[in-house]
Amino acid sequence: MARPREFDRKEVLKKATFTFWNKGYEATSMEELVTVTGLNRGSMYNLFGNKEGLFLATIDNYFDFIHETFGAPLRKAEGLKSIKEYFALVGGKLCKYGRGCFFTNSAIETKSVPEAVNQRVHVYFRTQHDLFAKCLEVAKKKGEIPADRDIQKLSSYLVCLTQGLTVMSKLNKQTKTIQDVIDVALEQL
Amino acid sequence: MARPREFDRKEVLKKATFTFWNKGYEATSMEELVTVTGLNRGSMYNLFGNKEGLFLATIDNYFDFIHETFGAPLRKAEGLKSIKEYFALVGGKLCKYGRGCFFTNSAIETKSVPEAVNQRVHVYFRTQHDLFAKCLEVAKKKGEIPADRDIQKLSSYLVCLTQGLTVMSKLNKQTKTIQDVIDVALEQL
DNA sequence: ATAATATTAGAACACTTATTCTATAACTAC
DNA sequence: GTAGTTATAGAATAAGTGTTCTAATATTAT
Asked: Which pTM was predicted?
């Protein structure tokens, strides 16, 4: 039948994701993406349609990545322990690389980026919010937090915290500062 | 001598600032800036050198704007009252427009933006940090916060909070959510 | 009015952009 | 092998980019 592909879609997507993540949507050219992925220009357009399509694919790819990596502690839903584990993980990774969060970066650049991206980022924030809420429910049952605490508000607060850390980590790469903020913020629970 | 200018530098800068603020550095073209400012292309390059120079000028212009508008309550340094006033102001403005913070946006896009921008944003965050610290010192003296609280950590925490709010406000424009987060976050002090 | 100076309008330039096209090469089922 | 299919390499395209240049225009001191 046909000639087989010489590339791995997953691998191509991974490389494209890092490039977009580092430089943003506008500042990344198809030229660069072709070079960095090693993929042929024609195959690129065959697979993803156009730059926007490729970008959306990297966003989805990143969603899966986040879900696996950072969602894990929260999905265990073991109360405050899970939340602390989550922020330890996030804080560590943020400081280590200094790219921030691909979602946050894209959300910020979003005016120049398709509406579809906005929607996906929105779904992500809601997912994160709900995961926090579940952990807090458990924490309440365990008596780790007072029974009269408003879980919705606290979840929004934790989403906000994550975003703040994301931004700070891109500028101030001192691990200590990030850790300090996490410490202070979690005292609040 | 010479023919007088038909434009007001301040006014030009203001319009350029809003354009960059809305769309980001990369997504804004000189073509658009020329149209939006109504300024002649040649005069543009005469005044600011090039796109990067114009962008830096808008960043400086924004710094002054922020200093006047949002710095005011913090400079009064009346303890917790000032901090609450600050966040009420910030929360309100963030929700009203939905552009986020020009500094934050630029910091995030920064990989594709000159290093000079990075430095300015850095200065801004430090300034903000120090203003918070001063208010907290006063609060401590007034007995509004416990004497053993670490002011440096708390200040970093408040900077982080501001950034988080900034990001959230660009996506979730519900005023209530923003207000909820502020409420929860300030309980921590 | 004239000379000197600066601003203006917008054409022109060189380069980059995303995207499409074309011809060639590689593979498989028959 | 051959036919059919698909990936490949890279040239070609058309529009957009930041920037420079040129000529005309407006103003003021003399």
From this structure: 0.92
